[in-house]
Each structure stands twice: as structure tokens, then as C-alpha cells.
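worker-03 picked up job from queue 'complexes'. Input manifest follows; two sequence lines, order preserved.
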Amino acid sequence: MNCQMNKLANDDLHAYVDNRLDTTRRAEVEAWLQAHPLDAERVLAYRQQNDMMQALFNPVLKEPLPLQMHPKAQRKHFAQPLRYAAMVGAIVLSGLLGWSLRGIEKSPQQPPVMAMVNRAALAHAVYTPEVLHPVEVSNEQEEQLTKWLSKRLGSNIKAPHLAGAGYELMGGRLLPGNQGPVAQFMYQDSRGLRLTLYISSKMAGKGEAAFRFAQEGKIGVFYWVDEDLGYALSGELAKPELLKVANNVYKELNR
Amino acid sequence: MNEIEALITEQIPRLRRYARALTADRTSADDLVQDTLERAWGKFYMWRRGSDMRAWMFSIMHNTFINHIRKNQVTTVSMDEDALEVPTRATQNDALEMRDLASAIVKLPCEYREVVLLIGLEEMSYEEVAQVLNIPMGTVMSRLSRGRERLRILMAGESAPVLRRVK
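worker-03 finished. Artifact:
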């Protein structure tokens, strides 16, 4: 008996630490530990290790996901035959329509999303140089602005606050889009550099876009679709910097 | 597809927690998770519907981790201060001990580290760990035993002259 206990003790000791023993075995191990203080000390230390690991690393579970880990951003890695069919289709279609968009990443695109990106970049180029009227409604009337845009777009529209990324909301405007009204919010940093966030509704049912990047001349655009809303963040910024802001926008919107 | 997407996404917080402990460095941890996710998306068709998604994802992470070690992408000794945020309720002493734990964990050989964390942090059963790491049960138990004991010695050795560590 004693000999068998010796042999079993080590695995059982760990199973005891991890609460993996049935009642009978647990009682046996407890009796053993009463008689063997060194083993009891080890059990205590191992249990502390587990508790401390949990205390130290469990907060990671609650951290917001970086945007790149979001499933929509991961979609481009989705390997399935349909994807290639869609890609071929998109290439043929884009050839037919003579699209001249450059800098679009290799994945297949849904035309409505690309149309949105085009218009977003265009609206950015048109309105950001405005000195007197960059926005239709200023940030002083933010509540009215978002209410109005929500009503016109038929969705709950929020203006994300990007102070964390160094950008202040200037205000926004309503614009004509491909499929009805769209919203544009404008932001400015302390150097006067302006970014715009273009929001288009009714994107559902058209397939969801991954978090992607397009370059239109000097203007970089990060765009994605969340629920039924399409978003395009445009700015004359290097891609990594713009990505940082896009991350911020996403986080703020999903608060 | 949405079902698989949801199943994979559900695992991300756990993968991040495990990766953080495995590398003790926020950046290498998230790189590890990112690469794991890319692999998972790339071969999700190999996942058998109804089988355990957590085990599948963690075994992909295990392979990715081994690759990162080979390519030296994983920090094994240096400590990233960010990675060691300590819960605010902890007392000063607890905080120091927890810091020691994180740095002691990365001093363990990778094989031990994985087993100790999958069991202690991820709370997997020994059978699941054997499956995830693709090793026999006996190996799981011996790595667990050696890993925990080494960790205990490291912790005991470190807490004696508490503030001695200079990097």
C-alpha cells in the first residue's frame, strides 16, 4: 500500500492541485499530505502558482481586440473555392467597367464598397481644403448633428471621439451617396491636418468587407463594413498612422 | 461560415491571455495570436464540425509558437513592462511577486512553460493538453511536474533578495 502510494503520489499530487480527483482519491491524498509536510508545501506552492497566473493574466481576457484580430479583418485569409471564383469575377467585372483604382489590396471587392471608397476619397478631397465651410454643422451642435444624420441615413450614427488619437471633431455634413444620403464627419489635429470619416448606410446584404486599405492619389483610405454601415476613414497620412486612427475609430464606435 | 467565424472569434481572448503569459511581451504575444488566426482561417476546412474548437486553435498556436521560437520572434528573457500590468487591488508585495511570476515563467524551457500554462492558466485537462501538444500523457505529467517544481524554485530564489534584479 505504502509502496503504491509512493508511486502514485506525484501524478496524484498534481491532480490534487488541479482539483481533478474524485472524492475518495482526494481524501487519500489529503491524508498523505497530513503526514508529509514537504509535499503539502509543494501543493501549496503549486496552487499559488495557478492563482497568481490567473490574477496576473485574466485581465487580458477583457482587453478590447485589436482591429486586425476582428473577424472582418481576418476574412481576407479565408481560404475557400468561392473566394477565388469571386476574385475572378471581380477582376473580369473591373476590367469591363474600366475601373482605374490603384492601391487596392488584392482581395475581391464588392462594387458597392468600392464605390463608397471612391466617393469617400472624393468627398475628402473636396471638403477638407475648405477654410470657411469645412462642415455643415459644427461640433458645437454635435447632438443635433448626429440626430439629424441618424434620421436621414435611417441608422444610428455616432461621431466617434478621437481625442485619444489627437484629433478633434470639427463637425459633419450630409452628402449624396450612391444609395441615398451618407454622412461625413471631419476631424483636425493640432497641426491642422484633417481626416474625414465617411459613413454609408444600407450596406447589408452586399457582403461584408474586411478592414482594408486603398490609396487614391495622396489620400489613404481605410474602409470596413460593420453591421449595415460602411465606413471609410480618409486622410493624407502614412498607412500605419492612419491605421492607428482607424483602430481608434473602430474602438470608439464599438464602445 | 458565420458559425465558424463565431467559434474562432470566441477563442481570441483566451489565445491572447495564453500568448501573453507565454511570451511576457505584448507585441510578440499579439503577433503570435495574429499568425495563429491567419493559419486558422487558412485551414478552417480541416476543422471537423462538432470537434473541440479550443483544442484545435490552441494546437495551431502551439505550432505557430514553435515556429516563432525557431525564427527568434519570441522574446524569451526580456520583460515588457506593459505586459505585466498588475491588478490594482494587489498590495505592493503581491505586485512584486506577480512580476516575479511572469519573469519566472519565461525562464522555464518552452516545453514546460506550455504545459504549466495550459493547465494552470487555461485550466485544460491533462488529456486535452496531450491532444493540443500532440504528446503522450506521461510526457504531459512529467513536464508539468518539472515545470512547476522549477517555477517554485525560481520564485523562492527570486523573492529572497527582492529588489536585486538589474537588467
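worker-03 released lock.
The radius of gyration of chain B is 17 Å.
DSSP finds seven helices and no strands in chain B.
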